[in-house]
Amino acid sequence: MPQTNFWLIRHALVEENARAYNYGATDVELCPHTLESARPTYAALARRLPQPAAWVISPLSRTRRTAEAIFRDGYPAQPLAVELQVIEQSMGDWHGLPHADVPGKLTMPAHPFWPLAGQERPPGGESMADVMLRVGPALERLAITYEGQDVVVVSHGGTIRAAIGHALGVGPDAALHFSVHNLGLTRLERHPRGWSVVCTNEICGA
C-alpha cells in the first residue's frame, strides 16, 4: 500500500449570527467580510497545497465555498468529491441553542476545551466518540480510494479532531484537546505500517 497524504483544512469562519448558536451539522453561511479579508490566507493555502491532488469536501456548503475561495486565489479549480462521513458533529436537538444554554443540558462534566465531553451525546445527535467511529473508517477508505496520492479534505473542526484522534489511536476526550482554527491545515500520512501526524493547525501565511 503506497503512502497516501491527507491535507485537512477547516472551513472558513461562519457568519456572525450563526456563531452565537450551536450550528454543528446545520448548513450556515460563511462570513462575507472574512471571505475578503482573509484572501492572503487563501492565497497562501493555494501555494502550500500539493498539485496534483484529489479534493474532498463535506456535504455542507461552507466547505465547498472555502475550497472555491482557495481556487479563486490561486489553486487550479478541481472537481470536489462530496464525502458524507466527514460532516461536522451533529448536535441533534441542541442545534440552534445559544451556547449559554448548553451547560444546563449536559449529563456529564464538560470537556476543558469543548462544550461537551467526548462521550456526551445530545438527544438525536452524536458524541465525539460517534464522530470518531465514522471518520476513522472514512479516512481508511479514502486512503485506499486515493492510494499513493495527495488528498485535500476541506472539513470541520470536530471532524479534524476525530481524524487526528484516529491517527494517534486515542479516545475522544484526548482528541478534543487539539485546537483546530478556521483555515488551519493539518497533515496526516497513511503508510503501510500505520498513520503519521505530520503537523496540526498550521496557519498558512501567518
Which structural class is indicated by helix and strand composition?
alpha/beta
**What is the CATH first-level class name?**
Alpha Beta
H/E element order: EHHHEHEHEHHEE
Instruction: Give the second-level CATH assignment, the architecture.
Output: 3-Layer(aba) Sandwich
Strand order of the largest sheet: 3-2-4-1-5-6
The radius of gyration is 16 Å
Count up the domains: 1
Characterize the quaternary organization of these chains. single chain
Observed structural traits:
globular, 6 strands, 6-stranded mixed β-sheet, alpha/beta, 206 residues, Rossmann fold, 7 helices
Provide a descriptive summary of the structure in words.
- The protein is α/β, with parallel strands linked by helices and 206 residues long.
- It has a single domain, classed as 3-Layer(aba) Sandwich (Rossmann fold).
- Helices cover 32% and strands 17% of the residues.
- It has seven helices and six strands, in the order βαααβαβαβααββ.
- It has helices at 16-19, 32-37, 39-48, 61-72, 128-145, 157-168, 172-175; strands at 4-10, 54-57, 80-82, 150-155, 185-191, 194-202.
- β2, α4 (61-72) and β3 form a beta-alpha-beta unit.
What's the helix and strand layout?
Elements: E1 4-10, H1 16-19, H2 32-37, H3 39-48, E2 54-57, H4 61-72, E3 80-82, H5 128-145, E4 150-155, H6 157-168, H7 172-175, E5 185-191, E6 194-202
Parallel strand pairs: 1-4, 2-3, 2-4
Antiparallel strand pairs: 1-5, 5-6
Helix pairs in contact: 3-4, 5-6
